[in-house]
Amino acid sequence: MKLIYFTPRSRYKVISLTGFWCALNCKFCNKRYLVNMVHTTPSNFIDTVRELYVNGVRGVLLSGGFRSNGTLPIEPYIDKLRVVKRELGIITSAHLGLITNEELLHSLRGLIDTVDFEFTLSSFIVNYVRGFTFSPKKYVNVLSKIVDSGLHIVPHIYAWHPEIRRDVLREELKIISDFGIKEIVLLVYIDPFKTHEHTKLASIVVDNIKYVRNTYPGRLYMGCMRPGYIKPLIDPVLVEKELVDRIVNPYYKVLREQPGDIYDACCSIQLIESLRELFLVSKVSNRNS
Question: What global pTM score does this model have?
Fold first, then answer.
């Protein structure tokens, strides 16, 4: 297996479609992740993307705050997206959240290249962390609607959170497999209270990822959502044991000791040949190990 690294820096940027606004108050975020995104509005979106493009950006992750029902307010941007896709051919991924409107989803075909979707059946994530009052089963309905729309979707699931259960993880993997989805991004919950001992936490994370690797037949990507303090403990193992196919922002010693191709992009993009050329920043054969 050839491991691929992703270090999104200058060619792939995250855009908040809502500025600092979010109707939710998720336990691990509390709107702080919106701060470092590029902020835009429907009125200046085209100019914002044009400026990013001039400065070398070739892909954007459309994100931002969510409505109280967990959906991204992307509707005012659809016509604007048509313009920048036609004019610039920029690559677009999106955190759409819990959108189930079929007409809206179909209108995004050709405009959104990848839907990054947090998929969970955990009441801890859905009801406690996110603050929703509905059942986690709603996430299955959302997944179904997005798949049926024809959009390319990459589910993100938790390899660990404080109340993770193996039976729930097993069911998440089964549902994703049953939908015929061939790739998953793995997340590690970032506990704002940092109450877990680092070595023990790292061991649990690795064990869970081993389980996913042995259970799920598709490709696995270690996403950017994981505490920095466990990277030195888990990243070398993930690489040496070939537990993942892609890894985002790896521990620096891993890059030095286990060289691989590096792409300046989000890890969920489809690496067709043209995108390899567009986002490749360092190739193994050109690097000193």
Answer: 0.95
